[in-house]
Amino acid sequence: MTHSQTGAIGAHNAKVMNRFDLTKRLVGRLKHDEAVIGGIGNANFDLWACGQRPQNFYMLGSMGLAIPIALGVAIAQPKRHVIALEGDGSLLMQLGCLATVAMRAPKNLTIVLWDNGIYQITGSQPTASAATADLTAIARGAGIANSAWAADEDDFDRLVAAALNDRGPRLIAARIDHKPAVATTDRDPVQIRERFMRGLGAKSSAA
Q: Burial, 19: exposed, middle or buried (Cβ in 10 Å; 0-12, 13-18, 19+)?
Protein backbone atom coordinates (compact mmCIF):
# COMPACT_ATOMS: atom_id res chain seq x y z
CA MET A 1 0.00 0.00 0.00
CA THR A 2 1.42 3.42 -0.96
CA HIS A 3 1.66 6.50 1.21
CA SER A 4 -1.16 8.20 -0.69
CA GLN A 5 -3.46 5.25 0.01
CA THR A 6 -2.69 5.25 3.73
CA GLY A 7 -3.01 9.01 4.06
CA ALA A 8 0.61 9.40 5.30
CA ILE A 9 1.32 11.89 2.51
CA GLY A 10 -0.22 15.28 3.23
CA ALA A 11 -0.12 18.78 1.86
CA HIS A 12 3.23 19.64 3.37
CA ASN A 13 5.24 16.44 3.09
CA ALA A 14 4.65 15.52 -0.54
CA LYS A 15 7.53 16.12 -2.94
CA VAL A 16 7.49 19.49 -4.70
CA MET A 17 7.31 18.74 -8.43
CA ASN A 18 7.06 20.67 -11.70
CA ARG A 19 3.66 21.34 -13.24
CA PHE A 20 4.79 21.16 -16.87
CA ASP A 21 6.56 17.84 -16.29
CA LEU A 22 3.47 16.38 -14.62
CA THR A 23 1.21 17.74 -17.35
CA LYS A 24 3.37 16.03 -19.99
CA ARG A 25 3.15 12.80 -18.03
CA LEU A 26 -0.63 13.04 -17.85
CA VAL A 27 -1.14 13.97 -21.52
CA GLY A 28 1.13 11.09 -22.53
CA ARG A 29 -1.34 8.66 -20.98
CA LEU A 30 -4.37 9.91 -22.90
CA LYS A 31 -5.33 7.34 -25.54
CA HIS A 32 -9.12 7.59 -25.86
CA ASP A 33 -9.91 11.21 -26.76
CA GLU A 34 -10.27 12.18 -23.12
CA ALA A 35 -11.41 15.76 -22.59
CA VAL A 36 -9.07 17.99 -20.60
CA ILE A 37 -10.15 21.33 -19.13
CA GLY A 38 -7.23 23.60 -18.25
CA GLY A 39 -7.92 26.19 -15.56
CA ILE A 40 -7.08 29.85 -15.93
CA GLY A 41 -3.43 30.78 -16.18
CA ASN A 42 -0.53 28.40 -15.84
CA ALA A 43 -2.68 25.25 -15.73
CA ASN A 44 -3.83 25.86 -19.29
CA PHE A 45 -0.55 27.44 -20.44
CA ASP A 46 1.31 24.20 -19.70
CA LEU A 47 -1.52 22.13 -21.18
CA TRP A 48 -1.21 24.21 -24.37
CA ALA A 49 2.56 23.65 -24.43
CA CYS A 50 2.01 19.87 -24.33
CA GLY A 51 0.20 19.94 -27.70
CA GLN A 52 -3.08 21.40 -28.89
CA ARG A 53 -5.43 18.43 -28.78
CA PRO A 54 -8.95 19.24 -30.06
CA GLN A 55 -10.32 17.70 -26.85
CA ASN A 56 -8.54 20.36 -24.75
CA PHE A 57 -10.37 23.40 -23.43
CA TYR A 58 -8.34 26.37 -22.23
CA MET A 59 -10.21 28.44 -19.64
CA LEU A 60 -9.61 32.18 -20.04
CA GLY A 61 -10.51 35.03 -17.73
CA SER A 62 -12.45 33.40 -14.90
CA MET A 63 -11.01 31.72 -11.81
CA GLY A 64 -12.55 28.54 -10.48
CA LEU A 65 -14.48 27.36 -13.54
CA ALA A 66 -12.35 24.45 -14.75
CA ILE A 67 -14.02 21.92 -12.45
CA PRO A 68 -17.60 23.10 -13.10
CA ILE A 69 -16.97 22.99 -16.87
CA ALA A 70 -15.43 19.54 -16.60
CA LEU A 71 -18.39 18.37 -14.52
CA GLY A 72 -20.79 19.56 -17.20
CA VAL A 73 -18.85 17.76 -19.94
CA ALA A 74 -18.67 14.58 -17.85
CA ILE A 75 -22.43 14.60 -17.32
CA ALA A 76 -23.14 15.37 -20.98
CA GLN A 77 -20.75 12.70 -22.30
CA PRO A 78 -20.64 9.89 -19.71
CA LYS A 79 -18.63 7.56 -21.98
CA ARG A 80 -15.76 10.06 -22.27
CA HIS A 81 -13.26 10.49 -19.44
CA VAL A 82 -12.93 14.15 -18.43
CA ILE A 83 -10.02 15.70 -16.56
CA ALA A 84 -9.96 19.13 -14.91
CA LEU A 85 -6.58 20.77 -14.31
CA GLU A 86 -6.99 23.43 -11.64
CA GLY A 87 -4.77 25.53 -9.37
CA ASP A 88 -5.14 25.90 -5.64
CA GLY A 89 -6.08 29.58 -5.84
CA SER A 90 -8.78 28.95 -8.40
CA LEU A 91 -10.23 26.03 -6.46
CA LEU A 92 -10.38 28.17 -3.32
CA MET A 93 -12.52 30.62 -5.33
CA GLN A 94 -15.05 27.87 -6.07
CA LEU A 95 -14.91 25.33 -3.23
CA GLY A 96 -18.61 24.61 -3.54
CA CYS A 97 -17.97 22.79 -6.81
CA LEU A 98 -16.43 19.91 -4.84
CA ALA A 99 -19.72 19.26 -3.07
CA THR A 100 -21.57 19.35 -6.39
CA VAL A 101 -19.10 16.90 -7.95
CA ALA A 102 -19.53 14.56 -4.99
CA MET A 103 -23.32 14.83 -5.12
CA ARG A 104 -23.50 14.11 -8.87
CA ALA A 105 -20.68 11.54 -8.61
CA PRO A 106 -19.73 11.24 -12.30
CA LYS A 107 -17.71 8.07 -12.75
CA ASN A 108 -15.76 9.60 -15.61
CA LEU A 109 -14.38 12.72 -13.89
CA THR A 110 -10.87 13.29 -12.52
CA ILE A 111 -9.70 16.52 -10.91
CA VAL A 112 -5.98 17.26 -10.91
CA LEU A 113 -5.03 19.99 -8.47
CA TRP A 114 -1.80 21.94 -8.88
CA ASP A 115 -0.92 23.42 -5.48
CA ASN A 116 2.01 25.82 -5.14
CA GLY A 117 0.52 27.83 -2.30
CA ILE A 118 0.38 31.10 -4.22
CA TYR A 119 -1.75 33.09 -6.65
CA GLN A 120 1.07 32.86 -9.16
CA ILE A 121 -0.15 35.01 -12.04
CA THR A 122 -1.46 37.88 -9.90
CA GLY A 123 1.67 38.59 -7.86
CA SER A 124 2.45 35.41 -5.90
CA GLN A 125 0.29 36.27 -2.92
CA PRO A 126 0.02 33.24 -0.57
CA THR A 127 -3.11 31.12 -0.70
CA ALA A 128 -4.75 29.44 2.28
CA SER A 129 -3.21 26.15 1.21
CA ALA A 130 0.22 27.58 2.01
CA ALA A 131 -0.75 27.67 5.67
CA THR A 132 -3.75 25.79 7.01
CA ALA A 133 -5.93 24.41 4.23
CA ASP A 134 -5.45 20.84 2.98
CA LEU A 135 -7.48 20.73 -0.21
CA THR A 136 -7.62 16.93 -0.38
CA ALA A 137 -9.08 16.84 3.13
CA ILE A 138 -11.63 19.45 2.05
CA ALA A 139 -12.47 17.35 -1.02
CA ARG A 140 -12.95 14.24 1.11
CA GLY A 141 -15.12 16.23 3.48
CA ALA A 142 -17.23 17.31 0.52
CA GLY A 143 -17.72 13.66 -0.40
CA ILE A 144 -14.99 12.91 -2.95
CA ALA A 145 -13.57 9.91 -1.11
CA ASN A 146 -10.84 9.18 -3.68
CA SER A 147 -8.78 12.31 -2.99
CA ALA A 148 -5.03 11.97 -2.44
CA TRP A 149 -1.73 13.78 -2.60
CA ALA A 150 0.82 12.46 -5.08
CA ALA A 151 3.92 11.56 -3.09
CA ASP A 152 6.24 11.97 -6.09
CA GLU A 153 6.26 11.60 -9.88
CA ASP A 154 5.89 7.82 -9.81
CA ASP A 155 2.96 8.09 -7.44
CA PHE A 156 1.38 10.74 -9.67
CA ASP A 157 1.66 8.36 -12.63
CA ARG A 158 0.05 5.60 -10.56
CA LEU A 159 -2.81 7.82 -9.43
CA VAL A 160 -3.49 9.02 -12.99
CA ALA A 161 -3.45 5.44 -14.33
CA ALA A 162 -5.89 4.38 -11.62
CA ALA A 163 -8.17 7.32 -12.37
CA LEU A 164 -8.28 6.51 -16.08
CA ASN A 165 -9.06 2.86 -15.44
CA ASP A 166 -11.31 2.95 -12.38
CA ARG A 167 -14.53 4.64 -11.40
CA GLY A 168 -14.52 8.23 -10.18
CA PRO A 169 -14.86 10.93 -9.28
CA ARG A 170 -11.28 11.34 -8.10
CA LEU A 171 -9.06 14.20 -7.04
CA ILE A 172 -5.28 14.01 -7.43
CA ALA A 173 -3.31 16.79 -5.77
CA ALA A 174 0.30 17.63 -6.52
CA ARG A 175 2.58 20.10 -4.79
CA ILE A 176 4.32 22.10 -7.48
CA ASP A 177 7.15 24.62 -7.66
CA HIS A 178 6.85 28.29 -8.56
CA LYS A 179 8.35 28.02 -12.04
CA PRO A 180 6.35 29.87 -14.70
CA ALA A 181 4.62 28.10 -17.55
CA VAL A 182 6.75 27.31 -20.58
CA ALA A 183 4.33 28.87 -23.11
CA THR A 184 1.23 31.04 -23.30
CA THR A 185 -2.10 29.91 -24.73
CA ASP A 186 -3.31 31.73 -27.85
CA ARG A 187 -6.09 33.91 -26.48
CA ASP A 188 -8.83 33.38 -29.04
CA PRO A 189 -11.97 32.36 -27.08
CA VAL A 190 -14.06 31.67 -30.18
CA GLN A 191 -11.41 29.41 -31.71
CA ILE A 192 -10.92 27.60 -28.40
CA ARG A 193 -14.66 26.97 -28.07
CA GLU A 194 -15.18 25.91 -31.67
CA ARG A 195 -12.24 23.51 -31.71
CA PHE A 196 -13.31 21.97 -28.40
CA MET A 197 -16.90 21.47 -29.57
CA ARG A 198 -15.65 19.72 -32.69
CA GLY A 199 -13.21 17.67 -30.62
CA LEU A 200 -16.13 16.41 -28.52
CA GLY A 201 -18.30 15.74 -31.57
CA ALA A 202 -20.74 18.40 -30.41
CA LYS A 203 -20.31 20.30 -33.68
CA SER A 204 -19.47 19.03 -37.14
CA SER A 205 -16.35 20.20 -38.93
CA ALA A 206 -18.52 21.59 -41.71
CA ALA A 207 -20.52 23.80 -39.34
A: buried
- H-run or E-run covering 38: strand 35-38
Alpha carbon of 178 to those of 17, 24, 89, 115, 121: distances in Å?
10, 17, 13, 10, 10
Task: Assign residue 63 the CATH number of its domain.
Answer: 3.40.50.970
By the 8 A CB rule, do 55 and 82 touch? no
Residue 71 and residue 97 in contact, taking contact as beta carbons nearer than 8 Å = yes
Q: Helix/strand/coil (H, E, C) string of 50-80?
A: CCCCCCEEECCCCCCCHHHHHHHHHHHCCCC
Distance, in Å, from the CA atom of 21 to the CA atom of 107, rounded to the nearest integer, reads 26
Q: How many domains does the chain have?
A: 1
- Least confident range from 54-63, 71-80, 137-146, 176-185: namely 176-185
Backbone angles phi, psi at 83, to 5 degrees: -125, 130
Residues facing residue 173 across a β-bridge: 113, 149
Are 34 and 164 in contact by the 8 Å Cβ rule? The answer is: yes
CB 33 within 8 A of CB 80: yes
User: How far, in whole angstroms, is CA 77 from its chain's centroid?
Assistant: 18
Read off φ and ψ for residue 193, nearest 5 degrees.
Answer: -65, -45
Range of the domain at 137: 3-199
Looking at the domain assignment, is residue 104 inside a domain? yes
Please report, rounded to a whole number, the percentage of residues in the chain having pLDDT higher than 70: 88
- The DSSP code for 87 is E
pTM of structure? 0.90
* Length of the chain (residues): 207
